[in-house]
Design a protein that fits this description.
glycosyltransferase, cell membrane, transmembrane helix, alpha/beta, membrane, RgtA/B/C-like, 5 strands, 20 helices
Length: 470
Amino acid sequence: MLKPVRFFRRWKPLHILFCCAALGFMVRLFLAAEVPLIPDEAYYWLWSRHMQAGYLDHPFMVALWIRLGTLLWGDTPFGVRFCGLVGFVCANIWLFLAARRFFPSRDRVGVRAILLLNVTLMASVGLVPATPDVPLFVFLCLMLWALSGALQSHGAAACGWWVLCGIGLGLAADSKYTALLPGLGLLGFVLFGGRGAWRMAGPWLGGGAAALMVLPTLVWNERHGWAGLLKQGGRASYWHPERAGQFLGELLAGQLALLTPWVAVLCFMGLWRARHGQHVLLWLSAPALLLFLVNVTGERVQPNWVWVLYPALILAGAAYAGRLRGACMTGGICTVLVYAQCLTGWLPLPPHMDPIARLGAGWSDLAAAVAEEAEKAGISCLATDDYALASILAFQKPQGLAVLGKDSRWGYVAGLPHETVRTVLYLKDGRYGPVPAGGWAVWRKDRKRPVRVYLLEKRHDLSGWIVQRP
């Protein structure tokens, strides 16, 4: 009876971590295959059918990853998410190695970093969908690992690490424009961090490598009037100080939810304590922290925007925070509950409070219902103003229907043909109802439970619509 106990006692933390990581990866694979796409993923999938060096909302990396995944696994949810799943494994490895190199005197700091990361809802749930945040996070972890090597090396070896750091940062910027914020922090560290790094060749070689990596994104922006950079950068010009308190409260609540409260406290506590140790983490975080605090005076900061801070926060929390047992237990329980809700819908939440059902449930049945209504009306074209709704319906390939969308975004996607049509079935999101008296509508459902209603209307002589063909 004692042999199994002795066997497990001989296990080292790395063995336990490896087994937990393998189990977590299998769960993520299952979740990626079973949970339907959400509209934003379908939008990026549509990008991947028309590859180019940039798009209005984000750079090209997420489209490239989706294209590679669907080449291997087809136009399925698993194919769309596949490269992100592999990338997340790499991110764990790079974060583990970065933690050990940044903090060689800290006991089991690499294990602590991986535990902290994987019990957050950001990592366990938020990084499963194929969005630009996934390659952003992966390449920022690569950048941190390379930076840890650059700061611990000398001579030619340090130059090589700096070049790899620049490559990681450039690829992160090809994923999402917010990667420019840690890049700005890294530049500040090189110039003013107190190590005289600006006198060395390595940081400037790394800067050149970053510029080379981000060149396709810059060229696309230059050819399109800097549309992408202006769209994202223009948010800083909004000014609604009377709502700053509300926006700040929403920002803090969102981060407490995504990190889970206990992990969030540990990470921000660790970042504060990093000023007496690896203050490079503070340099990397400061521009984003400052921008988001300024941004709440003008508009709502979406929770996922802050994910650009998470790699540095996780390292700081792993190195300088206290005991992790309680944080890991509460984060793990939250993750299990969310996974169960994704797969079974065990908690009967109302539709407006259930983001899982609101974003992912019932799309294939909705597409079939709309196609049936269009066939009854003798119409072969479906139209909508909502780019996300148009994208998810195009992914579902409603039989006999061409999906049309009208949005300024489509003008930046090459290869989407313009087509003038005489009669379309117009689809509009009616949210949670009710359906107007005598209205024509279909419901999207989650296990026979109504989630959202879509109003139908026959329209004539629409010009300038851009056709998206499945």
